[in-house]
Design a protein that fits this description.
Blueprint (H helix, E strand, L loop, with lengths): L11 E4 L5 H11 L4 E6 L2 H13 L3 E6 L5 H14 L5 E4 L14 H28 L4 E6 L12 H21 L4 E8 L14 H7 L11 H11 L10 E4 L9
Parallel strand pairs: 1-2, 1-4, 2-3, 4-5, 5-6, 6-7
Helix pairs in contact: 3-4, 4-5
């Protein structure tokens, strides 16, 4: 286990979208710092792989399949966690989907899938966590994964950008309402990181040319989002509330 100012030994942490990418990375980082980690996602096999990896690192973890668009699934997950570990006091709201397409080609089903997962899912998980923390008078932290697309826009990203912009505003609204219960709500706005969701872009020659035009001229390394996440998640960030941090190497300052 790592010892640092980002001590997580008192945390019961629930991570959504933990079967791959940023979610899996956040779950590992929390576990090796002492948190009791609950990894959740829809893809059971991939989720189990992440859980086994965390166990091999000496972490404490349980995997629970969840659909963040279904209220009953969320409630059942929190019920199971409480029986095992007690009240969740740290949420990493990371589940998300994307489908690049022109705005005129977005059909209702595609729009609903993106907004239901990226926005409604964030709201329902945060709400369930907050209700239980408030009831038990437990302080905590909620870290939502937004995107630099919530701050700026790009071609063929209308539904995704709308969902992530809404997550940013939701983060601020919840931070304001729940501050009286000592529940902090913040957000990360990642730029490009190589994950399962984005890796196909990096195989395209046109994308390689595009990457040379942005401010950092490269994707971020996973370790470069670790400290920003841990700052918001841990007690080290106890005076941070309602903020949304771009972690993008300056990408959002230039060409999107």
């Amino acid at each position: 286990m790592k010892n640092s100012e980002f001590d997580m030994s008192e945390k019961v942490a629930l991570v959504t979208g933990a079967s791959s990418g940023l979610g899996a990375h956040f779950a590992r980082e929390l576990a090796i710092r002492g948190a009791k980690v609950v990894v959740t996602a829809r893809r059971t096999e991939k989720l189990e792989n992440v859980a086994r990896e965390i166990l091999s690192l000496g972490g404490e973890v349980v995997s629970i399949p969840i659909d963040v668009t279904e209220r009953k699934s969320i409630k059942n997950c929190f019920d199971e966690v409480e029986k095992r570990y007690g009240v969740v006091n740290l949420v990493c709201n990371n589940a998300g989907v994307a489908k690049p397409e022109k705005a005129v080609d977005v059909d209702e089903a595609s729009w609903d899938k993106i907004l239901d997962t990226n926005l409604k899912g964030v709201w329902m998980v945060a709400k369930e966590a907050a209700k239980r923390m408030i009831s038990e008078e437990v302080s905590g932290s909620i870290v939502n994964t937004a995107s630099i697309m919530g701050l700026r826009v790009a071609l063929n990203r209308a539904s995704y950008a709308a969902s992530k912009a809404a997550v940013i505003q939701l983060t601020k609204a919840l931070a304001l309402e729940w501050s009286e219960y000592n529940i902090r709500v913040n957000a990360l706005c990642p730029g490009f990181f190589v994950t399962e969701m984005t890796e196909h872009y990096f195989l395209q020659p046109s994308f390689a040319k595009y990457m040379k035009t942005i401010v950092p001229k490269r994707a971020g390394d996973m370790d470069e989002i670790t400290a920003p996440f841990l700052l918001l998640a841990s007690d080290a960030g106890s005076y941070l509330n309602g903020i949304c941090i771009p972690v993008d190497g300056g990408h959002s300052l230039g060409k999107i």
